[in-house]
Amino acid sequence: MKRKVSIETFGCRYNRLESAEIAYELEKEGYAPVINGDSPDVVVINTCTVTGRSDAKCRAAIRRAKLANPQALVVVAGCYPETNPDEVAMVKGADIVVGNAGKHKIAQALGRLNGAGADKAGRGDTAPTGDMLVRPITRMEGRTNAYLNIQTGCDEACSFCVVRLARGKSRSARPQEVIAQVNRLARAGIKEVALSGINVGEFGKGKDEGLARLIEGILGATKIERIRLSSINPNNVTDELINVMARSSRFCRHLHIPLQSGSDTVLERMRRPYTRKEYEELLARLTGRIPDIGIGADVMVGFPGETDEEFNETLEMIESSPVMMLHVFAYSPRENTLAFDYPHPVTKDKRKRRAMILKELSAKLSRKMRERFTGKTLNVLIENERDREGYLKGFTDNYLPVKLQGSDATLNRIVPVKMISSNDSRLVGAPLEGSSTPVINKEQSPGGSLE
C-alpha cells in the first residue's frame, strides 16, 4: 500500500506551485496524496519566512500537525528552515528539516531518516547552480488558470528582505522548457498562465534571452489564450516588454509593480534600485502606451526611521497615481538583514495606523477603477466554479473581478461581458447576447477597452 502524504503551504503563490512540485516528486517515488480524510503517513509543511509572524504560524503548524498525526513523519521545508534550520529543528514535532533545494528531494530525506532526531538539512543543501527545472505538472484541480515558476533567487540587495537569503542567486528556466510546459497546460484545458518568480524580471539574466523575448516565444509557439505576469520590479519593466504587451491581446494588460515607498529617502535606506521619479515615469509610459492597463503595487509602512513626512510623501504619490490596488505590509524586522540594525524603529501602533490608511486608499482606488469601466465591454475568463450566491465569476485581462449570471456553457471560457454596475468588490456584468467568443481574438494595436 502506498504511503499517504498531506502538504500544508504557507506564503506566496510561488510556494503553492512548489508544493505541487513536491507532490509530483513524491508521487514518482510511490507516495499518494491523502484523500477522504485518511490519516497521513507524512505531513509536509512548506514554510514562509517573510515576516516574524510567518515564522510563528509555521511553528504552530508543525506542532499542530504532530499533535493531530502522532504516527506521521513531519517534514518542514522551504524558506524558514533555509534561513534558520537550527531553530526549526528544535520545534517539537519536526522530524525532517530541509531547505529550498532539498524540498524536491523529500523522498530521499525520508529514506535517510533512522528515527533518531530531526534530519537537519537547512542551508547546507542549498546554493544550487545551473538552470532551474520546470516540472511537467498539469493537474490543476479544475482551475482555469495556472502559475508557472520560470525564475528563482534574487541578485538585488534590499536592506529589509530575507527572501533573497532564503532563495539564493538568481537562476532561470530554459525558454524551451517554459514553452513546452505552457503547451502542456494549454492541452490540459488551462486558459491563462501566469509567469512567476522570486524576481521574475531577472529571467534570463546574463544570457541573450530576457523576459520580453520569452513572452514573444510563448505567444508564437503556443495556443494559450492568456499570458499574465506576476509581480515585477519597476527597474525590470523595459520598453521592449511594454511593446509586447501593447501589441498582443493575449498578453494581459496588468502589472503588479512593487513600490514599497514614495519617499526617496526611504527608498535609499531600503536600497531599492529606483527613485520615486523613475517609478512615476514608468507609470506614465505604461498608461500612455496601454491606457486601460491595471496596475497594482506593494507598499511597506513603518520602515525604520520612516517619519510622518516620509509616509505622507508615499500617500500623496499613490493618491495622484494610476495605481488601482495596493498590497500593504507593515515592516517586520528580520535577522541577518541590514535593516535589522537600523535605528529609530517605528512603533507598532503607528505602523498599524499607517497600514490602515493605505488599505482604505487601496479600496478607494479599486472602486474608482471599477467605476471607470462600468458601461464598457471587456473579455472575462469565467472560472470553473460559481460563487456562493450562484453567480459566474472571473477576471478581465486587466485584473478587474467580475460576477455575472449565465449558463455553465461559459465556464472556463473567455467571453465578452458588458459591465452593468459595480458593487463593493466587483464589477457586475452580463454576457453579450448569443456570444461565447472574445471580442478580439488576434494581435491588437495598443491600449483601449474592447468596446
Describe how the helices and strands are arranged.
Elements: E1 4-9, H1 13-28, E2 32-33, E3 42-47, H2 52-68, E4 73-78, H3 79-83, H4 85-89, E5 96-98, H5 106-112, E6 119-121, E7 145-152, H6 163-167, E8 171-172, H7 175-187, E9 192-197, H8 211-221, E10 226-229, H9 239-247, E11 254-256, H10 264-270, H11 276-289, E12 294-301, H12 308-319, E13 325-330, H13 348-372, E14 377-382, E15 392-396, E16 401-404, E17 414-422, E18 427-431
Parallel strand pairs: 1-2, 1-3, 3-4, 4-5, 5-6, 7-9, 9-10, 11-12, 12-13, 16-18
Antiparallel strand pairs: 7-8, 14-15, 14-17, 15-16, 17-18
Word description of this protein:
- This protein is α/β, with parallel strands linked by helices.
- The chain folds into 4 domains: about 120 residues, Rossmann fold, CATH 3.40.50; about 120 residues, Transcription Regulator spoIIAA; about 120 residues, Transcription Regulator spoIIAA (2-Layer Sandwich); about 55 residues, OB fold (Dihydrolipoamide Acetyltransferase, E2P) (Beta Barrel), CATH 2.40.50.
- The protein contains 13 helices and 18 strands.
- The strands form 4 sheets. Strands 2-1-3-4-5-6 form a 6-stranded parallel beta sheet, with helices on both faces. A 5-stranded mixed β-barrel has the order 14-15-16-18-17.
- Strand 12, helix 12 and strand 13 form a beta-alpha-beta unit.
- Helix 7 crosses helix 8 and helix 8 packs parallel to helix 9.
Give a brief outline of the structure:
By secondary structure, the chain is an alpha/beta fold. Helix content is 32%, strand content 20%.
